[in-house]
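agent> Task received from the user: take the single chain below, predict its 3D structure, and emit structure tokens. No templates, no multimer pairing.
agent> Plan: (1) validate residues, (2) run structure prediction, (3) serialize to tokens, (4) report one or two observations.
agent> Step 1 OK, no nonstandard residues flagged.
tool_call: predict_structure(input=
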Amino acid sequence: MKKPDYHILVCNSFRVAGDAQGACNKKGASSLLQYLQEEAIDRGLDVAVTTTACLNVCTKGPVIVVHPNNYWYGEIDTEEKIDTILDALINNQAVKEFLITD
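)
tool_result: status=success, residues=102
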């Protein structure tokens, strides 16, 4: 199997114990999954998109993490923000205004 260039993790807020649909899910993360996948393909990006359990940054949700770059993005709640992130990935760059980590 060829490994993808990027692995995008989308917090889906699932927890072992507690609220099954936590902050990121309530803020619309799951509704953006299909858009994210389709737009990555449309741009010719080699991307795997995966949902995750809670990433423990609930106040910044929805949270998206891009590997191998280790870009942690917060408040990714619109298609426009996803477009901006994917456009930056074409040039292997981060969108600094969305980053929630150093």
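agent> Step 4: summary for the user.
Helices lie at 23-26, 33-42, 79-90.
agent> Done.
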